[in-house]
Queue: 3 jobs
Job 1
Amino acid sequence: MSALPFDDRDGYIWFDGEMIPWRDAKVHVLTHALHYASCVFEGQRAYNGKVFKLTEHSQRLHDSAEMLGYTVPYSVAEINQAAEDVLAKNNLVNAYMRPVAWRGSEMMGVATKGSKIHVAVAAWEWPSYFSPEARLKGLRLEIAKWRRPSPLTAPTASKAAGLYMIASLNKDAAGENGYDDALMMDYRGMIAEATGANIFFLKDGVLHTPTPECILDGITRRTVMDLARARGIQVVERMIRPEEMADFEQAFLTGTAAEVTPLSEIGPYRFVVGDVCRQLMEDYDKLVQGKE
């Protein structure tokens, strides 16, 4: 990833319906979203000039906002068009994209009535979230300190900015301890997800993945489940206890940024980067590149 700070780059960002210079896309320090996390976003990728599952991402932005009590003031079709326009305006073919919707600076307090909803879409070149070398040999994950909250505590089905505070704490701690990422448990102590990706395990030819009760039901997650079933691989969604990792043979992460990334280690547990994981990596790559 480029070392340039994200507020000082060339290019353009779609901001409240207009294409403006990158450096002009600013918000005030007393913006509600900054103080109270009233913000939702998407992470999506463009491959060969086409955003993968664009409408699903734009719809999820709408759905996440509704869970936080506000409505995105642009339709799904308009958000789709904004994403395509941003790609073209910045002359990008392969890119990471960030649509975001947030409450503005009209209100400063817990109450939100009267605050304006803003929307922006940015795009930039971004290679794989993890290095090619790390992906090939499998990532090492620490078992995280902080857990995912109960769906009765937070709107866990939304892609809301506030939910990622826990992920940042865990990610930073894992890096300081020499790991690539961290595996979080849910509020019950069951396996949940990594800091920015869903997780799968393989045992006896069957894939197991946590039920998305208090984690994001990722678009990549669902895509990989479809790819696995197309190859005749059974996929089971269920609660998974941490001690079960001792019996799993393979493990991998899925996400827009992570794509399909194998794991070699989670805390005291070890896994091989096996044929099933490699096959799904290849299938996913072909799908997003339009090589089916």
Job 2
Amino acid sequence: MILPRTPSFRLDGRRALVTGASSGIGLAAAVALAQAGAAVTLVARRAAELDALCDAIRAEGGQAGALALDITDLGATAAAVAARGPFDILVNSAGLARHMPALDTTADDFDAALALNLRAAYFLTREVARGLIAAGRPGSLINISSQMGHVGGPDRAVYAATKHALEGMTKAMALEWGRHGIRVNTLCPTFIRTPLAEQTLSDPARRAWVEGKIALGRLGEVTDIMGPVVFLASEASALMTGTHLLIDGGWTAE
């Protein structure tokens, strides 16, 4: 009897691009991909933090390079992807949150969140896919969304709008590029202990609200993201595209 073999979670020989890699979820994703064998290009605006992370990854035997870049500069981003690609894996983790009541939202708040969370993500994903299609290579493109791409929350009208839009964008791109072997999915975390979440978690009342919504009774850690990122990047998820992977501790189970 010939038994089936579990698809590999290894990423040896793959090239990955990770945005927002200088901290939080992006940093954890970059480390996870490097530990799984991928050669990772780290993208963020802060060069010093990227260099330090590269050094740490290399010290453990991983492959990493830094690219200081503001991905809202669409021209510079397209040029960088064309020059350094093609990339087999994309983790689009750069994001912005300006939480406030909807009645207090300014046009500047709205435009800033939209520019990074959706516009930059859209065009970066497109450029990575363009490179793969030109090279005739498959790939896995992962957009870091949120549980707020599936529900709403107080003071999160703008943030939730960008993440709901990211979900729709991901589905449409998956349908377009599936024939090229390019998979496009989202990863949707709950509140993870990162600098971005601190503005909510530092408020005792808001923290109590968050913990009360999570069925597992705890906040997320960046390590909770690492396994799912490798899963979506690897052949272990070869039949997954145009969908989302919720890492929300049961928040959306109601």
Job 3
Amino acid sequence: MDQLEKHLTPDECRLLANLDSPARIQAWLDTVPYSKDDFYRCPLRVMRDRKAHCFDGALFAAAVLRRIGHRPRILELLPNARDDDHLLAVFKENDAWGAVAQSNYSGLRYREPVFRTLRELTMSYFEDYFNPVGEKTLRGYRGPVDLSSFDRLEWTTSDAGLESLADGIDRYRSVAILTTGMEAALQPVDERSLKAGLVGSNPDGLFKV
């Protein structure tokens, strides 16, 4: 975190000082427009551009969670081939998992730290994890990945190593959450839930089905 703070202006230092809990980190991310860009932003650039997609938001949240005493850990939610993956910054309080996230879908953001396992946390996203045509697409997860193992890439202040960081995450073992029979029996999302999930979304950032 010292590496990031060396680059901050006084106003940015004050902003960061106010983000002293997971809920406040999420509240700030909720003010940041969802990015449709196909490149990654480091946490420093997220602060300055005021723009982020889920990868950028997860890295930002992980960096700030580290500042307030948590490990900088992320969890990757894995869909089928008809949707985008989703990254969460995860944290533990009272021996339970919670999450902070940026998303183009209203239901794929914050989770209170009440989940005893990572599978429980992942499953809390299941009904809200759908593509623009209402297909439920969540199939598994990967991680958690401790980003401190990537500190050599200076991921908090530089975009240069983020492709390598993403490739490194992909090497972690994935865990499936559904059987083939479960997948075959899935029902589409109802119309109200679909509309609710897309409230405030950036259409340009949605998966093209």
